[in-house]
């Protein structure tokens, strides 16, 4: 929030504001060593556990030491198994996300921009939202079979609701004052949507998509639990049934990395759309 | 010529914001609407801008009845209301529809020059100070060459120095095309600096209390005696309008006097 406050203070010297801007940007980018503090705790715990197991203080059968987890991950990567499973999971999330997000954007936009549609759709959707999504699983299996369709459907349902709510809410909260600017210049409904509503809702739409993607990863695990022969979720179930905690932890780490990478890609892809925003985006 | 005839506005909850407003503004004239808060100044401006509908009466511009926003009527709001996702250049060009790219560029660049922000054309609104943002907003209204320009307390959120410099920018832009200007303000100095006529309004319901011509020559010397006298005259009228909320408009009193006399 330093931007507007600082430029206000400089209002009498426009040149000074221009000079101050790059300095501010540098300050924002400057590296803060305290970020490294966050690594301290997990690394210390990992090292302690590693030491405890290697000195024979603990058995480490149910809670494998970090070295064994890394070895398992490495072995899975070497045989190519990891990539098959990761790719399968990613593909399911992607298809489910695209379907769920598309439906969420379309219905959210309709419900946000038209009162009639909102009164028609919203109560039903809110009622459906109250159902825990996992409860759909038996029905989806009956309807769509045990293969991909039911899994993708479950993920799409999980993605749909946060996106729908986010988009509808964003449209409803567009500043009336900016809409009036559009009225003054006599924009048609379509022009108003394209030139004012769409850009105004973009920042919130990005956040809605991100939380949708997060839920997509949550639901892919549930979907893969209900019977899959491939996917990171399958690795989890397999590890449990075969008594291989190192494989479970390896799969969990793979999930974490995959989720983070997907989220970062989404943020990077949408960044040019919202770079005008007057906020510190790093905090999001 | 902009004329308001028997204009009234009653809100859905029964509040009478304006009652029987009659006002004629000549071409190229700058009229300042002045009055305490709640006397319907902003409502009046929103009616002319076509953002609200009048309950009774009509608004005419050169004989044509206005209903809804009109291409020849521009407005500058109290806040800059710039679109944060457009650069300064694109914000000014926002209302320029059906104009060739070259013409658009020329007009916007000229406006940027006039408001002294030429080197800021490619920046985001967030990088500008409050006064600079308001200048962009004024340029956005001027660039479409409106016949009537409405200003809704556009300088009220700014400090005195910035305000004075904005008055000059505004008059500089006005000199070029000489549009009719209706300026809402609660600052008497501002009204006397800019306007050819001050219209003093009175609340509950909003109505015109008095009209004072301000015939000082331009550019106006804010330190001179004539300026001071004009300010005092407007202040006195404003004072009367607030002290005597039930005082009746001039013509009403005349009519009653006439009735007594007969």
From TrEMBL, chain A:
Annotated transmembrane regions: 35-58, 90-110, 130-146, 152-172, 215-236, 248-269
Keywords assigned by UniProt, alphabetized: Cell membrane, Membrane, Transmembrane, Transmembrane helix, Transport
Start and end residues of each ABC transmembrane type-1 domain: 86-266
Protein localization: Cell membrane
PROSITE patterns cross-referenced by the UniProt entry: ABC_TM1
Main location per the UniProt record: membrane
Domain of life: Bacteria
Topology in membrane: Multi-pass membrane protein
PANTHER family xref list: ABC TRANSPORTER PERMEASE PROTEIN (PTHR30151:SF39), ALKANE SULFONATE ABC TRANSPORTER-RELATED, MEMBRANE SUBUNIT (PTHR30151)
Similarity comment: Belongs to the binding-protein-dependent transport system permease family.
Protein name (record): ABC transporter permease subunit
Native source organism of the sequence: Microvirga arsenatis
From TrEMBL, chain B:
Domain (ABC transporter) ranges: 2-228
Assigned keywords, A-Z: ATP-binding, Nucleotide-binding, Transport
Top-level taxon in the UniProt lineage: Bacteria
Keyword ATP-binding among record annotations: yes
Single GO MF descriptor: ATP binding
Family: Belongs to the ABC transporter superfamily.
Protein name: ATP-binding cassette domain-containing protein
Organism per entry: Microvirga arsenatis
């Amino acid at each position: 929030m330093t931007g507007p406050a600082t430029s206000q203070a400089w209002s009498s010297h426009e040149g000074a504001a221009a000079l101050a801007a790059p300095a501010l940007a540098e300050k924002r980018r400057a590296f803060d060593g305290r970020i490294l503090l966050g690594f301290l705790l997990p690394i210390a715990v990992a090292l302690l556990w590693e030491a405890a197991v290697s000195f024979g203080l603990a058995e480490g059968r149910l809670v494998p030491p970090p070295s064994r987890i890394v070895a398992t991950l490495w072995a899975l990567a070497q045989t190519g198994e990891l990539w098959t499973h990761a790719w399968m999971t990613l593909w399911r999330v992607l298809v489910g996300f695209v379907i769920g997000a598309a439906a969420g954007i379309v219905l959210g936009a309709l419900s946000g921009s038209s009162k009639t549609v909102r009164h028609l759709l919203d109560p039903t959707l809110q009622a459906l939202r109250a159902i825990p999504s996992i409860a759909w699983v038996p029905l989806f299996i009956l309807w769509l079979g045990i293969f991909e369709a039911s899994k993708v459907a479950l993920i799409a349902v999980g993605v749909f609701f946060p996106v729908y709510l986010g988009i509808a809410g964003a449209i409803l909260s567009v500043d009336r004052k900016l809409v009036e600017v559009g009225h003054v210049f006599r924009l048609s409904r379509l022009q108003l949507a394209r030139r004012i509503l769409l850009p105004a809702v973009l920042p919130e739409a990005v956040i809605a998509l991100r939380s949708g993607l997060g839920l997509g990863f949550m639901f892919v695990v549930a979907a893969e639990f209900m019977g899959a022969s491939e996917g990171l979720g399958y690795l989890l179930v397999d590890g449990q049934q075969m008594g291989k905690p190192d494989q479970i932890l390896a799969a969990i780490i793979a999930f974490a990395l995959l989720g983070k990478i997907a989220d970062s890609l989404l943020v990077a892809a949408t960044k040019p759309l919202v770079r005008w925003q007057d906020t510190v985006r790093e905090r999001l | 010529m902009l004329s308001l005839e028997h204009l009234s506005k009653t809100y859905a909850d029964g509040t009478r914001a304006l009652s029987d407003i009659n006002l004629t503004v000549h071409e190229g004239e700058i009229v300042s609407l002045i009055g305490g808060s709640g006397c319907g100044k902003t409502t009046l401006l929103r009616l002319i801008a076509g953002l609200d509908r009048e309950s009774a009466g009509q608004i005419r511009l050169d004989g044509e009845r206005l209903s809804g926003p009109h291409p020849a009527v521009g407005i500058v709001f109290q806040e800059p209301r710039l679109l944060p996702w457009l650069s300064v250049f694109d914000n000014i060009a926002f209302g320029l529809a059906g104009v060739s790219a070259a013409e658009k560029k020329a007009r916007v660049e000229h406006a940027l020059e006039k408001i002294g922000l030429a080197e800021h054309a490619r920046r985001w609104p967030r990088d500008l100070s409050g006064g600079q943002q308001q200048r962009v907003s004024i340029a956005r209204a001027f660039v479409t060459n409106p016949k009537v320009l409405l200003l809704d307390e556009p300088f009220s959120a700014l400090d005195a120095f910035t305000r004075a410099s904005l008055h000059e920018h505004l008059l500089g832009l006005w000199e070029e095309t000489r549009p009719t200007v209706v300026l809402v303000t609660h600052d008497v100095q501002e009204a006397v600096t800019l306007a050819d006529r001050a219209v003093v309004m009175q609340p509950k319901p909003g109505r015109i209390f008095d009209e004072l011509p301000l015939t000082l020559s331009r550019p106006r010397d804010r330190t001179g005696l004539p300026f001071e006298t004009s300010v005092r005259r407007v202040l006195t009228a404003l004072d009367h309008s607030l002290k005597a909320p039930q005082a009746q408009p001039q013509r009403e009193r005349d009519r009653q006097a006439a009735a007594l006399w007969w």
